[in-house]
Design goal:
The complex is a heterodimer of chains A (159) and B (157). By secondary structure, chain A is α+β, with helices and mostly antiparallel strands. In chain A, 39% of the residues lie in helices and 25% in strands. Chain B has 5 helices and 5 strands. Chain B is elongated.
């Protein structure tokens, strides 16, 4: 199992799996979770703090539906000469509205997402990126329809 | 949204305390009681603003190092059917229809995270067979340039 390859213990996988399924809006959510897992609340809190510090947990808390609070997003791609990737990435990443940015294997090789309060704001950011980098080979691919968003990883199941 | 709601969203989404009584801690920060915070959380969940209380994991750190974005070219009249079908596969974590561009005809996007790229390719082949669409690309990520948590209601926002 892949999780083992990365050194996650059986206990860590059980805890993360339960956390991915979600915790409840009750006064002592981690106590409730600990009871379900046969652990103490102190153990759960300690493990969660450690896994967050270690970077295994990227975020903990409320998962917000950005569209429901008026935010809008898009996926963009650019054709960037490989030697310019670090410099172009610096320009793109300087905008706090950029949430993901990956190099992918294609002539369109830099792919990033923008999340902003309005379409006008997105257009402004795209305009600035094009202007600052001088790169015009640019795709703006806003979503038309969402069929699925699932952030869980199967840490325990069969592969 | 009111200013109080915005502050609550920020505390709940970005600053959630790993503490015994997290909602009481948030209440202290924003000037509400624990009960009031919990009532607002339940209301946000009912309105769909909060999807759930959970964790987001760094997929590289839990062994899912291959990140394949599969882009599909689907006839417009088949989008609904194909989108639903691909979304039904447990290996697919995200499935979106997106706009196209003159030199970019792909209109359906599926994300696949697996431990190895061979598995991503095998899954993409199975998906392709299941929907009968051969016009697709698997774009693997080779470098993460940025991955940050969304920040709402900041100065700029």
């Amino acid at each position: 199992m892949a999780a083992e390859e990365k050194g996650l213990s059986e206990a860590e996988r059980r805890l993360l799996s339960a956390m991915q399924d979600g915790f409840l809006p009750v006064p002592e959510p981690f106590k409730e979770l600990a009871d379900r897992l046969g652990l103490t609340e102190e153990e759960v809190l300690g493990e969660l703090r450690r896994l967050k510090a270690a970077g295994v947990i990227r975020r903990l808390g409320a998962i917000i539906d950005s569209r429901k609070i008026g935010y809008t997003g898009t996926l963009c791609a650019m054709k960037v000469p490989p030697e310019r990737i670090p410099e172009v990435a610096q320009v793109i990443n300087s905008f706090p509205e950029i949430t993901h940015n990956y190099v992918r294997e294609h002539t369109y090789n830099v792919w990033f997402t923008i999340l902003a309060p309005s379409a006008q704001e997105i257009d402004r950011i795209i305009g600035e990126i094009k202007e600052k980098t001088g790169i015009q080979d640019f795709l703006n691919l806003p979503a038309r329809r969402i069929f699925k968003i699932r952030v869980n990883f199967d840490l325990e199941g069969e592969r | 949204m009111t200013e109080l709601e915005q502050r609550l969203i920020t505390e709940l989404g970005n600053n959630f305390p790993i503490a015994s009584r997290p909602f009481a801690v948030i209440g202290e920060r924003v000037g509400l009681t624990e009960e009031e915070v919990l009532a607002r959380v339940k209301e946000f969940i009912a309105r769909g603003i909060i999807r759930r209380l959970s964790v987001a994991l760094r997929h590289q750190n839990v062994g899912f190092t291959a990140n394949g974005m599969v882009v599909w070219r689907v006839a417009p009249e088949r989008l609904e059917e194909v989108g639903k079908k691909l979304a039904s596969f447990p290996e697919v974590t995200h499935c979106y229809e997106r706009e196209t561009a003159p030199d970019w005809p792909y209109n359906l996007y599926t994300m696949i995270h697996r431990p190895h790229r061979e598995e991503c390719l095998a899954i993409a082949a199975r998906l392709s067979e299941a929907v009968g669409i051969k016009d697709y690309l698997v774009l693997f990520s080779t470098q993460e340039l940025k991955r940050s948590n969304p920040q709402y209601f900041t100065e700029r926002g």
